[in-house]
């Protein structure tokens, strides 16, 4: 091994922001920008693929020998036109959104009360109740949909949006409750004790102290609940039979997959437009979402 | 109850259709030979309304003509009918819910073995099926298997159409390989595929978990070699020398395939064929239909492909029987319906020549007729290239051959046991003997439950 050393040029303030010797530009490229770029490409590629497929004519979709699969040579609006004007896509979108909002609201309401009770009231066996609620989340919908169908039918809700608004909480409530239990745990109990000393009731504490502090957690749970409702398939397929009442994931498949002929262009347009509301939702609340994952109130 | 009987409805319906035919001289009805038989007496219940579900359209005319025929029924009888179209893979979940809850659709036009899973929940259709059979020259062999409760003469459903899976090939490339048409002999057929592969035009059959094409590939190879998964009594019989021979043949044939067929799903061979990546596959008429539609829209590429495409029976005729089944649309009426007569009348109306022939013709024969008199339909004279699909109902193999059609047979198909057996050998993951043993183990488990 050689003992020769390479003399480093001195860095002066005039050279720009000071960079530690280990924090060189090359190091940053290798440790930050390249991995970041890979993540970005992997995460955004499906959206890119959906977008270019939405604007590709069938001839280009069929023939990758003469056409670059990653680019569009002759963009067309035919797929968008077919989806928006030859199907009830707008109607499906509104139905899906109403159902997602309805079930998310109900689930959050129930989950806040459940999580608060389990985490703060500390009644006998509360830990086991928390575990039991989480265990309910593990029951797959493919097992539940037939018994639930009987309940839905006996309540007279079959083939109505209420069938979904009321059944989605069966998997949303356990998930949101579990998430909120963790969040409530990170809010210092001393804050509530102060309120109790000042004479506040439990409900007042929940409304005036805990919930305002738990907004990031609520948003996080809300986003998850909304996304799960938006994408749900099996209940929407089983409990709704009228074409006009279907949700986007079911209706798009019914209308645009005809036997073994897949209308890929319109399917991708439907998937792209269908993912936009969720993406916008995330965009507005991403800071709350991140803060809920990184911890609540710092003591 | 109104005084409106089925006979009246038939007269009104016939009148309405006759006027429609006058307005549309192109309607091809005169060619269908019919016996003079009185329809069963099924007076329609007062205030009847029906809900119907069926798989989503294969091509636009499938839905359009179905709805037109339904509207004609409503006009003739006053019975309101609502049809909902459900995804092909998804209809079974809705049928299961309807059967379990006793709610939902009155009539389900489902898949071949669906009625056999709910025999205690659906109406007897013997009278109607017998009438249709007598009037229209009898039922084909395959619809008879799927329409009757297995091993009995009791009809439990009305088969409405059989989507056959014939060979689809490029004539010029097959000619270039030295054959006028794909030979029926399996050795010669393998030779043709090798030559096509050598000429840069590989063939391709789906070996992925795909409901239609994947299962179709596996059963074709198995049946062509005289194999079967269970015997007549439902005893697992896959571990036989015929199955080993089929697997060895499949492995040789696989060497002539385009890469990637192990992951092919139902749309994959359509795409590969229309992209001119493969020269031959097995499929319904959909590939040709898409090419022909493209040609009609002025796509020169599609016009060229359509002109060069031909169809033929799958090779490997075994004891005089083509080794194919067909994707059968099979209609049943649930016992929970309040209007059983209206439901049966609706099915009868759809199957009568005035309605059925137009549906058959407009769909380019995708749902080939189950009643033999429709052999004479103008549909089969419109384009000689689709003739191989005409005889889909004459096939003598069925899902779960040669055992009873049970939940076990349906589960074996749904779990792709035969497909995975072939795929494992083709991929070189297992020897034919290992693959057969594994398939036998899985089939035994399923048939014990089913």
> Per CATH, which architecture of the largest domain in chain A?
Orthogonal Bundle
How would you classify the helix and strand content of chain B by structural class? alpha/beta
Q: Tell the overall outline of chain A.
A: flat
The CATH architecture of the largest domain in chain B: 3-Layer(aba) Sandwich
What is the mean predicted local confidence, pLDDT of chain A? 86
Order of helices and strands of chain B: HEHEHEHHHEEHHHHHEHHEEHHHHHHH
What is the distance, rounded to the nearest whole angstrom, between the alpha carbons of the first and last residues of chain A? Answer: 52 Å
Q: Do you know the CATH topology of the largest domain in chain A?
A: MetI-like fold
Proportion of residues in helical segments of chain B: 40-55%
Q: Enter the CATH topology name of the largest domain in chain B.
A: D-Maltodextrin-Binding Protein, domain 2
- Number of distinct beta strands of chain A: 2
Rg of chain B, Å, rounded: 22 Å
The CATH superfamily of the largest domain in chain A is MetI-like
Task: Give a description of the structure.
The complex is a heterodimer of chains A (299) and B (450). Chain A has 299 residues and is mostly helical. Helix content of chain A is 70%, strand content 1%. In chain A, helix 4 (89-121) packs across helix 11. Chain A is flat. Chain B has two domains: 6-164 and 327-382, 3-Layer(aba) Sandwich (D-Maltodextrin-Binding Protein, domain 2), CATH 3.40.190.10; 166-323 and 415-449, D-Maltodextrin-Binding Protein, domain 2, CATH 3.40.190. Chain B is built from 20 helices and eight strands. In chain B, helix 2 (60-77) links the parallel strand 1 and strand 2 (80-86). The longest helix of chain B has 18 residues, at 6-23. The interface between A and B is large, with 30 and 43 residues.
């Amino acid at each position: 091994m050689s003992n020769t050393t390479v003399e480093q040029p001195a860095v002066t303030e005039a050279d720009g922001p000071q960079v530690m010797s280990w924090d060189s530009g090359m190091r940053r490229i290798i440790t930050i920008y390249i991995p970041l770029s890979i993540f970005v490409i992997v995460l955004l590629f499906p959206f890119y693929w959906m977008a270019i497929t939405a604007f590709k004519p069938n001839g280009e979709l069929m023939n990758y020998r003469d056409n670059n699969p990653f680019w569009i040579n002759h963009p067309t609006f035919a797929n968008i036109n077919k989806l928006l004007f030859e199907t009830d896509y707008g109607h499906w979108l509104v139905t899906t959104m109403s159902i997602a909002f309805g079930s998310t609201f109900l689930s959050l309401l129930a989950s806040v009360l459940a999580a608060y009770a389990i985490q703060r009231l500390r009644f006998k066996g509360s830990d086991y109740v928390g575990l039991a609620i989480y265990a309910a989340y593990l029951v797959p919908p493919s097992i539940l949909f037939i018994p639930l169908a009987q309940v839905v039918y006996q309540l007279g809700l079959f083939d109505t949006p209420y069938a979904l608004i009321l059944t989605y909480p069966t998997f949303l409530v356990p998930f949101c409750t579990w998430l909120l239990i963790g969040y409530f745990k990170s809010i210092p109990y001393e804050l509530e004790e102060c309120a109790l000393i000042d004479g506040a009731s439990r409900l007042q504490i929940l409304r005036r102290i805990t919930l305002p502090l738990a907004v990031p957690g609520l948003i996080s749970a809300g986003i998850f609940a909304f996304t799960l409702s938006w994408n749900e398939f099996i209940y929407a397929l089983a409990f709704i039979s009228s074409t006009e009442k279907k949700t986007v994931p079911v209706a798009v498949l019914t209308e645009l997959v005809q036997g073994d002929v897949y209308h890929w262009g319109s399917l991708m347009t439907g998937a792209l437009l269908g993912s936009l509301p969720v993406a916008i939702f995330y965009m507005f609340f991403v800071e709350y979402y991140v803060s809920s994952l990184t911890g609540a109130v710092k003591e | 109850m109104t005084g409106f009987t089925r006979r009246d409805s038939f007269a009104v319906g016939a009148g309405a259709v006759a006027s429609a035919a006058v307005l549309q001289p192109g309607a091809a009805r005169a060619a269908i030979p019919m016996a003079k038989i009185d329809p069963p007496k099924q007076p329609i219940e007062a205030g009847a309304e029906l809900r119907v579900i069926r798989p989503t359209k294969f091509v636009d005319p499938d839905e359009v003509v179905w709805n037109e025929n339904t509207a004609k029924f409503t006009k003739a009888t006053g019975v309101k009918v609502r049809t909902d179209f459900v995804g092909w893979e998804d209809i079974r979940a809705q049928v299961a819910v309807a059967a379990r809850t006793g709610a939902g659709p009155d009539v389900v036009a489902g898949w071949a073995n669906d009625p056999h899973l709910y025999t205690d929940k659906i109406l007897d259709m013997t009278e109607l099926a017998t009438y249709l059979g007598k009037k229209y020259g009898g039922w084909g062999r395959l619809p008879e298997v799927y329409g009757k409760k297995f091993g009995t003469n009791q009809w439990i459903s009305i088969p409405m159409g059989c989507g056959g899976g014939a060979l689809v090939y490029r004539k010029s490339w097959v000619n270039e390989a030295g054959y006028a048409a794909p030979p029926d002999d399996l050795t010669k057929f393998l030779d043709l595929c090798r030559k096509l592969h050598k000429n840069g035009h590989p063939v391709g059959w789906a070996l992925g978990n795909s409901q239609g094409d994947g299962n179709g590939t596996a059963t074709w190879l198995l049946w062509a070699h005289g194999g079967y998964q269970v015997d007549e009594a439902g005893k697992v019989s896959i571990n036989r020398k015929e199955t080993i021979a089929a697997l060895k043949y499949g492995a040789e044939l696989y060497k002539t395939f385009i890469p990637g067929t192990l992951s092919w799903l139902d749309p994959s061979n359509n795409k590969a064929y229309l992209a001119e990546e493969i020269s031959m596959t097995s499929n319904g008429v959909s590939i040709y239909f898409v090419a022909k539609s493209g040609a009609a829209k002025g796509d020169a590429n599609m016009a060229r492909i359509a002109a060069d495409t031909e169809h033929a029976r799958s090779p490997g005729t075994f004891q005089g029987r083509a080794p194919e089944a067909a994707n059968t649309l099979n209609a049943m009426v649930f016992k929970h319906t309040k209007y059983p007569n209206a439901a049966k009348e609706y099915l009868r109306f759809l199957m009568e020549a005035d309605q059925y022939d137009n549906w058959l013709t407009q769909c380019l024969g995708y749902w080939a007729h189950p009643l033999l008199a429709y052999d004479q339909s103008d549909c089969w004279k419109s384009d000689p290239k689709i003739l191989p699909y005409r005889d889909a109902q004459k096939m003598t193999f069925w899902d779960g051959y040669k055992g009873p059609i049970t939940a076990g047979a349906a589960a074996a198909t749904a779990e792709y046991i035969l497909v995975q057996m072939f795929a494992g050998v083709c991929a070189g993951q297992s020897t034919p003997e290992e693959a057969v043993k594994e398939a036998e183990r899985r089939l035994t488990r399923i048939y014990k439950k089913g």
